[in-house]
Amino acid sequence: MEQTFVILKPSTIQRSLVGDVLTRFQRKGLFITGIKMMQLDEQILRIHYAHLVDRPFFPMLVNSMTVTPVIVMVLKGKDAVAVVRSMVGATNCRNAAPGTIRGDFGMSGQENIVHASDSPENAVIEINRFFKPEEIFDYPIPTLAATYAPDEIDQ
Ligand code: IDP
Ligand code: MG
């Protein structure tokens, strides 16, 4: 089953929205296979946001992402990457549809609550960037049979 990578950004920590956001993912039926708090720095952000390093707002983004620790997590589910991206919504919270996480919890383009992997290929890269193999857990999930039809479970 597919895994995706999510960051609860510093604004989410500061605004005490961790539980609300995590509950969204859990209620949907995604399972947590890895989760920890960590302090990001410019070095890892220059890699993680390599597509943005030349943009004028990049220093502001680094400041925003390092102002407190973040919570990083790995979520598991069928088509987890696409499902989580659709739950997260458009990059700018002011444009994000109501019902999405960014649409419901934010007002900013930069302070937009969460990061989520944008493709299965990037999810694998990002999980390996932020987690050691032993920090990802494969454990029995008794509710799996109530969450999916038998032919949707590929393991
Ligand atoms: P995404 O998070 O929806 O995948 P990206 O384009 O990959 O969006 O941008 C990464 C992050 O950089 C965004 O989540 C947001 O925090 C920040 N960002 C993107 N564009 C802007 C901008 O124009 N101004 C300020 N911050 C931005
Ligand atoms: Mg992105």
**Contiguous runs where pLDDT drops below 50 for at least 5 residues:** none
> Structural class from helices and strands?
alpha+beta
Number of strands: 4
Distance between the termini: 7 Å
**Strand line-up of the largest beta sheet:** 2-3-1-4
Described by strand count, sense and barrel closure, the largest sheet is: 4 strands, antiparallel
- Evaluate the radius of gyration: 15 Å
String of helices and strands: EHHEHHEHHEHH
**Cofactors, ions, other ligands:** inosine-5'-diphosphate, magnesium ion
| Average pLDDT taken over every residue | 97
Number of helices: 8
* Percent strand: 15-25%
Overall 3D form? globular
- How helix-rich are the residues, as a percent range? 25-40%
Quick tags:
alpha+beta, four-stranded antiparallel sheet, 15% strand, binds inosine-5'-diphosphate, binds magnesium ion
